[in-house]
Amino acid sequence: MDTVDTTMEKLRAQCLSRGASGIQGVARFFRRLDQDGSRSLDVGELQRGLAELGLVLDTAEMEGVCRRWDRDGSGTLDLEEFLRALRPPMSQAREAVVTAAFAKLDRSGDGVVTVDDLRGVYSGRTHPKVRSGEWTEEQVLRHFLDNFDSSEKDGQVTLAEFQDYYSGVSASVDTDEEFVAMMTSAWRL
């Protein structure tokens, strides 16, 4: 286990020790560390914050942590990146059921879910906004797909993006059995 993984595990343990208010507490903690009001943390802000939690890293180690967690390449961490880094990895059982749900949606089998794939699996005809004439079924399907898409919202959801979405859901479900049952029911697997 390298320094970044060790740091992540220590930080995750700190958050879990805060109980039910853990995520909200982390969000408040993040906002407090964001001294310049940029809605993101630079290396110095994160380093000071982790030191408050007893996780003292030198500048080179902290830069490594930031590089690993900085998904958009901005050189800073926004709250979403910070929370994503704290999520525990999914178990094999959870990954398997997420992969099965993705495969059900990916009707074309090309590894990417699009609105065309959704048409065969999910109907938006009875959506209230379609029924009122405010949206088309295409718009409903795209809105549904955007839930799983990365921040780019390109209308294409990869397995990695789908897993990332469900990694966040998984973090709030206590047992594998509950998560698998939820996914099986939701996606009719």
TrEMBL record:
CC terms in the record's Gene Ontology section: cytosol; nucleoplasm; plasma membrane; vesicle
Molecular function terms from GO: calcium ion binding
Subcellular localization: Cytoplasm
Domain spans labelled EF-hand: 21-56, 57-92, 93-128
Domain of life: Eukaryota
Protein task: Calcium-binding protein. May play a role in cellular signaling events.
PANTHER family listed in its UniProt record: CALCYPHOSIN
Subunit-structure text: Monomer. Does not form oligomers in the presence of calcium.
Protein name, UniProt field: Calcyphosin
Organism: Bos mutus
